[in-house]
Amino acid sequence: MEQLVETLSIDLEQERKDILKKYRRLLRTAKPFLKDNDAKLIKKAFYTSVEAHKDMRRRSGEPYIYHPLAVAQIVVEEIGLGTTGIVSALLHDVVEDTDMRIEDIDRLFGKKVAKIIDGLTKISGRFEYGTSQQAENFRKMLLTLSDDVRVILVKLADRLHNMRTLDSMPRDKQLKIASETIFIYAPLAHRLGLYSIKSELEELYLKYTEPQEYRAISRKLRETKSSRDRFISKFTEPIAEDLEKAGLNYIIKGRPKSIYSIWNKMRKQNKPFEEIYDLFAIRIVLESPQEGDREKALCWQAYSIVTDHYKPNPDRLKDFLSTPRANGYQSLHSTVMSKSGQWVEVQIRTSRMDEIAEKGYAAHWKYKGNDTKVRGNIEQWISQVRETLETGSGDKTAAIEFLDEFRTNLFNEEVFVFTPKGELKVLQSGATALDFAFDIHSEVGVHCMAAKVGGILVPISYVLSNGDQIEIITSNKQKPTEDWLRIVRTSKARARIKDFLKEDNKRYETDGRQLVEKKLKVLGIELTAEVVNQLRAFFESKTAADFFYKIGKGYIQLDELKRFKRDKEAKERKAVTTAVIPPVEGADGKAYTKLLKNLHGDRVDSDTLLIGDDMDKIDYKLAPCCNPIAGDDVFGFVTINEGIKIHRTTCPNAAELMSKHGNRIIKAKWESNKDEAFLAGLYISGTDRVGLINDVTRIISNELHINMRGLTIDTKDGVFNGDIRLYVQDTRHLDILISKLEQVEGVYNVQRFDTNLTGSV
């Protein structure tokens, strides 16, 4: 016992030394820009955090204080924030996880830090059913964005460290956190110009969701490093000589594309690693006085030197010098043909631009006073986010709708257009004349009936192009319709149109409710809150108000309620004969997990749905969007009115389901010993020859005795592409088939694909 105490005290002493070591490293990194009492304030925040978290440990067993220290290190070293950001990072969890209150933070560290901590603290309490808690938390956190962008920057640092330390989490938690990261945090980092962080978040997502593919690409990158280095050296040699002759100070970097971007390209182009040729990019970083025009001139001079040696692709030149992205990103991108016949992407920028490209929004504070247009673009985007948040509707699905629209805007490029007086307006790519009208003013948008572009009359659906000069034509008789929602792309326009329609449509909603109430009374059904939810789900309406509106407008006929009654009675009969929990709006995984534990008793995996064994006890089905087969890594998703659906963890919908509805996810694994057949799809390609189809079908039918559902082969100029739909027992069975097909003469590629990407989730 004494020895145990002694060992423990040694460990605690070592931990204390490690904590101080991390703290001193943080101070050393921050030292160059600390002023006055900054060091004292950071020290005060550090000891406050140490005291608050003194009895807490992370799942890995480490002292909890390691986490805020690591977040603070990321904030200063990788994002470039100053003292306020460091203090906020050190304290970011104290209000959520300890007895400290926002008032205590305000008293000790001031209102600015308190506001940031308040934005970072998760919102507690229950939310209306029909909304996602994660989405609502994120929406409320973003409310502070327009006041202080450091809220989001610290949150991204927090998420990055959580992803870096995901090893200690159980598999289901890894999938949920990784999915939420790829769904919202990586796009947000992209939008704020934090490209290094965005790339690392994407790679860590892949590492935990597709570990085998991540390791395979990583290994192949290591194996091809020496040949890549030789190519880069040979490619850059003549460019470097001419840059030297021109008297330019420069650094040339040859960097491989991220594992995630390579994986994404392999998946989208349906090609193996060996056929992805643009595995790297060349970046030329020039030293320059901080003068806008001088910087641009140097970049174009370097571009001229590059194109003296290599022929550029005219369709791949992107000038982000004159028109920076909304996040302030500036660079000159070109794709040129190397002597070996390989396309190479070349990026040219100054050191100032490079730092902004790596550290995004935060780096702008270092260059205050310069590039007001660049900073203005960022402020404009933040202003748009603020407007979207403030004008969002208050119905039950507002949070999820906001998250969907916000996310779709994050990756969008910009389009640059002008008013009749020559004022520059920056909208997202794909925006229409109607979006432009709402961007000028809500009243202009509401009464917009047409537009003129270059003096030519165009409809409100006209898609804007760079350089367009637009004049909006209005009419007092014009008013928004539901079709307008299909025309606009920007969140601002969509929110304004929805607000107008909401007021205009209240009458139809009221009429619809009265009609439904009368009809259900005739059918012997009382219009309770539960029945309203069932109606909404049955008629595939987003909200109850949406359902009543469709009835009031006549889009849904009242006689359809008879069909609803029949379906309702059938489900009630089934519920009597099975132990399933009736699907209800807002159902979450906890209720099902509790039921599973009751069914499974004291087993270790009692909280896990056993696919096959639990079929008679729990209502579940395989999701048609990804068609999982025995052996796939899967999870269960609690739907609103269809019980549980089993999805593959690599399902196209997995990231969205886990990030927006994490509370409705349950663990699942294959346990069936029955001989079952699962539908799977294989993509096959190669060079055509006589007898090829016969060889393929012989392996499938005769050797492996697999039943085919369909076979489609298309040949052109000696090359064939096709897909096969067939029934297999499990993933091992499928792997054997793929291996045998790859050995057929002429077959070059065999890959599994999801047999129904358009299926419901």
UniProtKB/TrEMBL annotation:
It comes from the Bacteria. Residues 412-474 form the TGS domain. Gene3D superfamilies: 3.10.20.30, 3.30.70.260, Beta Polymerase, domain 2 (3.30.460.10), Hypothetical protein af1432 (1.10.3210.10). CDD domains: ACT_RelA-SpoT (cd04876), HDc (cd00077), NT_Rel-Spo_like (cd05399), TGS_RSH (cd01668). Belongs to the relA/spoT family. PANTHER family: GTP PYROPHOSPHOKINASE, GUANOSINE-3',5'-BIS DIPHOSPHATE 3'-PYROPHOSPHOHYDROLASE. This is Bifunctional (P)ppGpp synthetase/guanosine-3',5'-bis(Diphosphate) 3'-pyrophosphohydrolase. The lineage of its organism: Bacteria, Pseudomonadati, Bacteroidota, Cytophagia, Cytophagales.
